[in-house]
Amino acid sequence: MRRILMLAFCLGVLGAGSALAQSKQMVQTMSDKWAAAFNNGDAASVAAMYAKDAYVLPPGGPMVKGRSAIEAFWRQTAHQVGDAKLVTVDVQRLGRRSAREIGTVTLETKAQPPQQIAGKYVVVWRRIGGHWLLATDIWNADK
What we know:
Layout: H1 2-21, H2 24-39, H3 43-48, E1 50-57, E2 64-65, H4 67-77, E3 81-95, E4 98-109, E5 116-128, E6 131-141
């Protein structure tokens, strides 16, 4: 009986961790880490937040697939824009190991004078090997 109770407790904790990671607050925390790495020009840390087989779907550009290509994409993008701020608007659970996030983003160009860019995004998060990673990332500007 004691083993059954312990097993039930462990499964409950594991399940709670999975649900917690799909909460709006937890997803916002992960998005804040992404923005901090991007704003620091750390493309390697940004890319590490993506699954190895992830896709980035930038507006007006070709699809980017795989962590190394994603790192190169964000490194190049960081030369053009910065001061990224992401706001999680909605999180929908897509199962025990995935979630969809919808949010808004603001950026500032590095041109002179700088211009503010506002947009929205959709990402799919997947739980892989105990970590929540970005699987799909797509966005567009409001204007």
